[in-house]
């Protein structure tokens, strides 16, 4: 063989080696028809510190149960789901920061959260810019209705909660209601919805607001007591705040009819601890159905895995469903934020642990809250 022939042969061999190296080092892409076995990242925003951690920690537990079920069953086309969890702390600043990290650093295409309305509202502009789907199983502020292209939720708006409570108050003959309201988007949304219905019905509302860090409510409660209301509405973001208010009402020996939001009425511990003062109290919840086989299973799995009953079950049912809805969205349209967001706004009669789920084009779950009353330290359905 000539020197030229040898040179050409070595060139050919070198090119083949380079091609092989490039082929092995190149990352497969789903859109080229090659299935990657890398985990599918699901962003999670939840309050894990502060008073609202009582919601965030159980939520993470429920998410993990659902993810383990899916991964054990083969994941999505052989790819496991992986939760990327951020502490959004139930406030706007940390909600925006958490969403920004998940979108811009972790490069997720879908985020579950938040649980609080404030953190969720702040995350919406971030996901809109990043074109990432945001799906909440707990944020219920009416201000989230029709909030952009990328947000939706499987928990109903508090427009429903505020309205049914106001109607119950009017049917009960209340004319003047005092609100003690925490300064959060969730609490404000309930007050607005309640006030709209109650004032149209001829009622009067007096209101005192307080920041979340407040611990001494005696002056505020005394001021409201002096207004001689027919009923006091305790409108808080978390149960520790409700607990502090109820203790101080008891200390003041104020005998007054009480209405509460779902934070308090859905807390067996609060009702047990304050059974005397809360006797006859009315609230509204997004009800659970223990006869639902999917819900019954996740309740049993939660107790087995964590050694306690699932708290805040109205949220637990929608948190469990959120993972499966996102799994189905990715299975149907791929790991693409735009397509996932569109899919989630077109859910129709999907059967989950929380019952039949239908989500409108405005991003809201269709359905609402039902009234409950405290009797003998327990809640039961209320029909005014």
Computed Rg? 25 Å
Q: State the shape.
A: globular
CATH class (first level) name of the largest domain: Alpha Beta
CATH architecture of the largest domain: 3-Layer(aba) Sandwich
Q: Strand order of the main beta sheet, please?
A: 2-1-3-4-5
Let me know the CATH homologous superfamily of the largest domain: Response regulator
Structural class: alpha/beta
Q: Which spans have pLDDT < 50 for at least 5 consecutive residues?
A: 1-8, 10-35
**Percentage of residues in helical conformation:** 40-55%
Walk me through this protein's architecture:
The protein has 2 domains: 40-156 and 290-357, Rossmann fold; 159-285, Response regulator (Rossmann fold, 3-Layer(aba) Sandwich), CATH 3.40.50. Helix content is 47%, strand content 17%. It is an alpha/beta fold and 384 residues long. The protein is globular. The longest helix is centred in the first third of the chain and has 23 residues, at 3-25. The chain has a 5-stranded parallel β-sheet with strand order 2-1-3-4-5, sandwiched between helices. It is built from 14 helices and 14 strands.
In brief, what are we looking at here?
The chain is 47% helix and 17% strand. By secondary structure, the protein is an alpha/beta fold.
Summarize this structure as a short list of keywords or feature phrases.
alpha/beta, Rossmann fold, five-stranded parallel β-sheet, disordered N terminus, 17% strand, single chain, globular, 2 domains
